[in-house]
Design goal:
This is PUM-HD domain-containing protein. By secondary structure, the protein is mostly helical. Helix content is about 60%, strand content about 5%. The protein has 28 helices and 5 strands.
């Protein structure tokens, strides 16, 4: 939060004033840079254009005494500290100019000022301010400081404001979702809007490149919100009977599954996509995603991000699904046990899963009853990761299997550094 003292620090200027004939020059020094700003009488201020209308930057306000108090006495510019006072009156032209400064000059101070005004103004003045901001909602949403202004409006409990923002960015949802600033606006919309407003966003995103959005570093966060949405609009809703004529309630997972067919593994092996997969696996219609991950579980297990999905399955999967995951992991132990991420997935199945006893027994049988068991153990010992994996396995085996493995190691004359 910013208070008067903070704003005073932000808006104060430093420099020297020298009088010249008919004009004052203010010399502002900032490090090695110098800029000359000319101060002219208010009457000579240039006209600015807003939507084809020529308006002065400084139009008069209702109380003439406020005009001079809102101007810096040295250069005729806006005095933001005075304008923050509750009794201060800011007209529409000034608001439009401030919005333009945020977009064109990435003006942080103008954004802070308008956010403060949003908190202090009451209707109808609040509506005037919101109208001036939402007039440029699209460029503000993707602006470094403008996106905070849009999010501040979304905090206001007024559905009409949210609908206006959605209408302003309609057709550009995908680009905004991929923007590093715009993604926060869409996430805020999905978090604060009622279901029928969320559907307007979701319907447009589902028509775009779903697979690209799923793995995009910014858009993936929006898709996480989309997949968390629980649509509750029904035909019998007496409060919003017209909604069913305006939008449709999509089967989100059916559309996502169709778009992501054959791409789930690639998605799971990315940093942002792995989080998406974990959200998808919680859905009832996640069978297509689960089966594709299962059919390529080795490729996922040896990947930095894919291994997190495999471990998530070990922790959250149902008993039937967990049995399938565990079996496939154990049967791939030769490849996984010498890989850092693969070994972690194996150990998770052996120690954390509800099928851990089954996993330990299956691994013991495969390791000790394999015709090439001596060669397999030698391969594991030659790898630092594999050797450590054997140490962990020995501690999990039953006494009988533990003795059999030690006998195998000794009889094969393998140098395994263990405390036997």
């Amino acid at each position: 939060m910013f208070y008067d003292d903070d704003m005073n620090k932000i808006w104060r200027y430093t420099g020297t004033v020298s009088d010249r004939e008919g004009d004052e020059q203010i010399l502002i020094r900032t490090g090695q840079r110098r800029a000359r700003i000319s101060k002219r009488p208010l009457s000579s201020c240039p006209q600015r254009s807003f939507n084809g209308c020529e308006r002065s930057l400084m139009l008069h306000v209702h109380n003439p005494s406020h005009t001079h108090s809102q101007l810096n006495p040295h250069n005729g510019k806006l005095n933001f500290r005075e304008m923050l006072k509750p009794e201060s009156d800011v007209n529409y032209a000034v608001l439009l100019e401030l919005v333009q400064r945020i977009i064109v000059k990435t003006d942080q101070q103008a954004s802070i000022f308008l956010q403060q005004k949003l908190k202090s103004l009451k209707r109808p003045n609040l509506d005037y301010l919101v109208d001036a901001v939402l007039h440029r909602a699209l460029p503000l949403s993707t602006n470094r400081f403008g996106n905070f202004l849009i999010q501040r409006i979304l905090d206001i409990d007024d559905i009409s404001y949210k609908l206006r923002i959605v209408n302003s960015v309609a057709g550009q949802m995908e680009g905004i979702a991929m923007n590093s600033y715009g993604t926060h606006v869409l996430q805020k919309l999905l978090s604060t809007s009622p279901e029928h407003v969320k559907l307007l966003i979701i319907n447009e995103l589902l028509e775009k490149n779903v697979a690209q959005g799923m793995i995009h570093k910014n858009a993936s966060h929006v898709w996480s919100k989309v997949l968390e949405v629980c649509v509750r609009i029904s035909k019998g809703d007496t409060l919003t009977p017209q909604i069913n004529w305006i939008i449709y309630s999509p089967n989100i997972m059916a559309t996502v599954n169709a778009a992501m067919k054959g791409k789930w593994v690639n998605c799971a092996n990315t940093d942002t996509g792995s989080l998406i997969i974990q959200t998808v696996l919680l859905k009832e219609d996640s069978g297509a995603c689960f089966n594709e991950i299962l059919n390529n579980i080795t490729a996922c297990a040896i990947n930095k991000w894919g291994s997190t999905v495999v471990q998530y399955l070990i922790e959250k999967a149902s008993d039937a699904s967990l049995a399938r995951v565990t079996t496939l992991l154990i049967y791939s132990y030769k490849q996984l046990s010498v890989d850092f991420h693969g070994a972690r997935c194996l150990l998770a199945a052996l120690t954390m899963g509800r099928k851990k006893d089954y996993a330990v027994g299956l691994l013991s049988d495969l390791l000790l009853n394999d015709e090439a068991s001596i060669h397999t153990v030698k391969t594991l010992v030659d790898s630092p990761i594999g050797a450590q994996f054997l140490v962990n396995v020995l501690s999990l085996m039953s006494k009988r299997d533990h003795h059999r493995l030690l006998t195998l190691l000794r009889s094969s004359a393998l140098a395994l550094q263990l405390d036997w």
